[in-house]
Amino acid sequence: MRPSKEKINNSPFARWTVLIIVATAMMMGYFVNDVMSPLETLLELPKEQGGLGWTPSDYGFFSGAGSFINVFLLMLFFSGLILDKMGIRFTGTLACSLMALGTLIKYYAVTAEFGNEPIAFLDYQLPASAVWASLGFAIFGVGYEMTGISVSKAMVRWFTGHELALAMGIQLAMARLGTAAALSISAPIARHYTLSMPLLISLAFLIIGLLAFLVFCVMDRKLDDSGQTKEDSADNTQYEEQFHFSDILVTLRNPGFWLITLFCVLFYSAVSPFLKFSTKLMVMKYGVDPDIAGFFSSIAPFGTILMTPLFGLIYDRYGKGVTLVITGALMLTAVHFGFSLPMHSSTIAIALMVTLSIGYSLAPAALWPCVPKIIPLKCLGTAYSMIFFIQNFGRAVIPMCVGRANETDPTYTTSMLIFGFTALGAAVTAIAILVIDKKKNYGLQLPNIKK
Description:
The protein contains 19 helices and two strands. It is mostly helical. It has two domains: 235 residues, Growth Hormone, Chain: A, CATH 1.20.1250; 208 residues, MFS general substrate transporter like domains (Growth Hormone, Chain: A), CATH 1.20.1250. The longest helix is centred in the first third of the chain and has 32 residues.
């Protein structure tokens, strides 16, 4: 028998190189996902002033478009099936390519001349530029979500038996860094060059991400060739079984799963869409200079880069996971209701954004480690896919509601109340999770590290 070779992922240099490569691809996706968020005020300028003449409702429709194909055509669920059947290399390459294609369409949308004839869609009358930009964002959204699950599986494949939690924490930090960078530099670039320049830079970043992922594919193939064992094959077989219909039923019958899913829908609907509207909020309500308003918005993602690993460590050592989740949701609720009040000091805006960053770090740091305590290991992949799929409904609907609210109430009171009550619903759901944890003994309040 031929002696088995040393597996390449046993080399710290190799696996950390893989982490940097795939996390870079993910970071580029996160950057592009929010690159147009600080541009709302520019997009709504008349064309003769360099804008596209969009309305707040048009922008709200565009912001929700990133989830359209994932939600209404079930693509997020099918992305999981594609990943399971075709593997990380194929799915990740496809995902990076879709992100680049979608961004290219968005670039076309803001540079082409379409005239002034609106296009009717549902009960919207959208300018052609908004339609094309929404189509591009929808295609990008498919690749964006597909990249996320591909990178997660790559981390498990390369770091199981090694520093998996640390690797995922660094990956999340790099992703949030991409978000923060987009919120910080997009508007200044657009104002000093052209409205399309941030998208052109985004396209270049995504091409870099695609090339990086192709390098990962070469290294991942080497992993296949380096000491594949029977245990590895058994692990792969077990992973495929996660998508059997019977396992889906096991997950669907679990009340804890539904409460965590509902929490995710409400909590992330109160954060992610808010960040897309926050730059204009800073300008219109708090009088912040448009060139630096994006830096105010970037406080939240920048804060999570440092605090999320810290709160995760607290949960690992001391427990109280649901308590941390409840605290984070209540802080988010207080922030949104604070933004709805008739106060216009930029100092208050900074304080609220800092508080939001703490809440945004607290809840996810404790929430995601709770899921494996509720869902059996063999069903975990299916559960995550369904959580992300259902979560996208909120990410699609809330921006459209907020866009229309801002059109009828430009003071942002109504839209902040929408976010506030959404966050309050998340807090109530988290309390329900605590109640069912006591009934079912999931162990969500116990430390993750066993002494």
